[in-house]
Amino acid sequence: MTAKTSTRQGDTHISVLDPQDDSLVAEVPRHDAAGMRKAIDRADAARDRARRMPVHERMRVLYDASDYVDRHRAEFADTLAREGVKTINEARAEVARAVMTLRLSAEETRRIVGNTIAFDQRPGSENRFGYSRRIPVGLIGAITPFNDPLNLVAHKVGPAIAGGNTVIVKPHEATPLSALKLLEAFEAAGIENGIFQVVTGYGHDAGDALAVDERVRMISFTGGRSTGEKIMQRAGLKKFGMELGSNSPTIIMDDADLEQAIPAVVGGAIAAAGQNCLHVQRLLLHESIYETARDQFVAAMTRVRYGDKYSEDMDMGPLIDKAAAERVEQSVENAMRDGARLLTGGQRDGNYYAPTVLEAVPANHPMVKDEIFGPVTSLHAFASEDEAIEIANSVDYGLHAGVFTRDVDTAFRVADALECGGVMINDSSDYRLDAAPFGGVKGSGIGREGVGYVLNEMTEPKVYCFNIRFPKGWT
């Protein structure tokens, strides 16, 4: 992913370009490390005010912010579509999810609970009584990607505020406008100064300053694995939430309902033009149905409409910029040079890349092992359930997987054997419920999002123990 900015020497702004035609959408300030440290100063000064904010006030702010987004859905969707990669219909769906995420955050605020502790389980502690309660982590740094520039921000900001924290968002430099509009919603809801801020800038200066500052007690990052690893190496002793992508498999067993499976897999292959951590990158087909399922999938991918993302009839928009499209193009060409067969797609037109299907990709090829982050799916045949599981688990990622089968026993066995954070039965890997725990294993990250679950990470248990002095003779 590359930054889209003016190349003028000493430029203090970032030019936000529409990836469809590289037209200028807006300019935002380019904050450097010093600018980020000033934001951290403000957030640190607001920590006590955030911590003392009563639950009912946190709920009110979150509900009011969600209502603001809901009332201005068309504006939010237009902003999201203009700066990003999604079609207008995908943008509307993301706005609706962001509204739900903020409302879930408001609801979960009332469920931040501790528990009583039986201190008298230890001999000599008969006079002790106590409990635990959850307290805010403090200042949370959120670093977000370009592919879901509104809802992924909401997934970090909503629980942070619900938990009584302050939060600074450093959005991706290509798509900062949706985050700024979300800040607008919280300001309209009356959020106090310094509790939630958006700082626009680049990862190497503003983002790095956010990660390494000792006052930042948690980093919540969604993005590439290499960047996530660098952040963890640089950030020091603090909490982390890391969602680092995947190359998700979807398995179609020999008894699957192809009328259900094929449309679902196509949707998972092209959402956000494949720039999606749940993208169906590897499609595993039982050998007995391989040709039938392959032909149906290829035919459906060939029918995908891509182009003007503002068109109501369009299925898929562009990649984030020319460099991203050229990277996908090069990856496909490398796979074909190494023996892969192109079944459809394989063409780049500016920032667009056609929905592409490959087969016979070597098992150890980067197209299979790494994350392509584009609308490319490779097909793989398997002869048995065990082989399908072996292929699916053969990579150092494990976010989501999909399994299509009519047999409940098969579904349970395969789901249990897959090494990943979530298995979608009779759905593609590209399904997520914002209330469910979301995250992966292996190289896909650390921790879980999903409002109630990340709220647990954004608060910490604190134990209160009372040693009670009873009067003599008290029984």
From TrEMBL:
<protein>
    <submittedName>
        <fullName>Aldehyde dehydrogenase family protein</fullName>
    </submittedName>
</protein>
<feature type="domain" description="Aldehyde dehydrogenase">
    <location>
        <begin position="10"/>
        <end position="463"/>
    </location>
</feature>
<dbReference type="InterPro" id="IPR016162">
    <property type="entry name" value="Ald_DH_N"/>
</dbReference>
<dbReference type="InterPro" id="IPR016161">
    <property type="entry name" value="Ald_DH/histidinol_DH"/>
</dbReference>
<dbReference type="Pfam" id="PF00171">
    <property type="entry name" value="Aldedh"/>
</dbReference>
<feature type="region of interest" description="Disordered">
    <location>
        <begin position="1"/>
        <end position="21"/>
    </location>
</feature>
<dbReference type="InterPro" id="IPR016163">
    <property type="entry name" value="Ald_DH_C"/>
</dbReference>
<keyword id="KW-0560">Oxidoreductase</keyword>
<dbReference type="InterPro" id="IPR051020">
    <property type="entry name" value="ALDH-related_metabolic_enz"/>
</dbReference>
<dbReference type="InterPro" id="IPR015590">
    <property type="entry name" value="Aldehyde_DH_dom"/>
</dbReference>
<comment type="similarity">
    <text>Belongs to the aldehyde dehydrogenase family.</text>
</comment>
